[in-house]
Structure formats: C-alpha cells, structure tokens
Design goal:
With 182 residues, the protein is mainly alpha-helical. The chain is built from seven helices and no strands. The protein has one domain.
Amino acid sequence: MKQNMEAYQWTKKDKRLYWLSMVPFLVVFIGALLLLSTYSPWLAILEVVFYLLTCVFQAACCIGCPYRGKYCPALFGIYFGNILSGILYPKREFDQEFFEKNATAGEIMVLVIAIFPIYWVVKTSWWLLPVYLLLIAAHLVLFMPTQCEKCSYNEICPGGIAWRACSGWLGSRRNEYIDLEK
C-alpha cells in the first residue's frame, strides 16, 4: 500500500455522478427484494444479510484508506463499509493479508448478492433477467468511469484494479481503432 496516500478531493459533480450511478443499483436491489419477498420474506431477509455481510468485509478493506469515515464511492458505490470500518476496527492498522482476505470475501459476496435472486427473477418471468442484468451493467458503466477512475485507492481496491484493467484495455482498443482509420 502507498504510504501517506494523497486523497483525491471529491467534487460536487463527482457526488452527483455517484448518485446518478446509484439509480440502477437501487432499482435492481429494491426490485429484487420485493420480488424475493413475494416468494418468501426469508429470501429477501437472506439477501439483506448477504448485503450486510459484504459491508463487514468491505469495512475490513477500508482500514488504511484515505476516505475512511468520509465520502467514499466504495465497493461499486453500494456499501457503507467506510463508515462501518471506524466502528468495527477503530485502532487496527492496515495489514495486507487481512485486506486481501476480506477483499476476496467481499468480491465473492458481491457476486452472491447479484446471482442469488436470478432463479426467482427467471421463475417470475424470463424477460426480467435481461432487465436485471442490464440494470447491473448500467450501474457499473455509470459508476466505474466516474468514481474508480479518480479514487486514490484504485491501485489497491479490487474494483479500482478491475477498472484500471478495463480502461487500459478499452484505451488500447480505441487506439487500435484510430490507427485503422488512418
């Protein structure tokens, strides 16, 4: 981890873009909860438990982050681990191994949260699946370029690493396309 990390100063525009990116997430998450609750309230409760567990894993990753306890786009912008981190780990120092274990667990839980409702989404109506997946994709497409790009933690955060790989790949593809036009 970088020592004495300089934190990017989030602007009002950054925060507005963050909230814009949250719209598809909120629609898909609340919609999934409502849909799951029609089959069993326990399914919706289980999805909320998965969400809260993911927040705990993210909180462990926030140790050492310059945004801890402040505005933070966090794990795809949908978790509040940066605030929870100060409550659960008020005096803990950054530990790479602890970070990596919790980052991996958090990544797995994000997938669990996204995949868990799919059976019931399809059971309700097959055409809801493309809507569900498009909303998730819309969230990522709106969130990652506006938040991960600027985040001072993007060399460490799994989401930031993914964004940097994607943006590098997209940039190289764009350059190849431009070269073909010449």
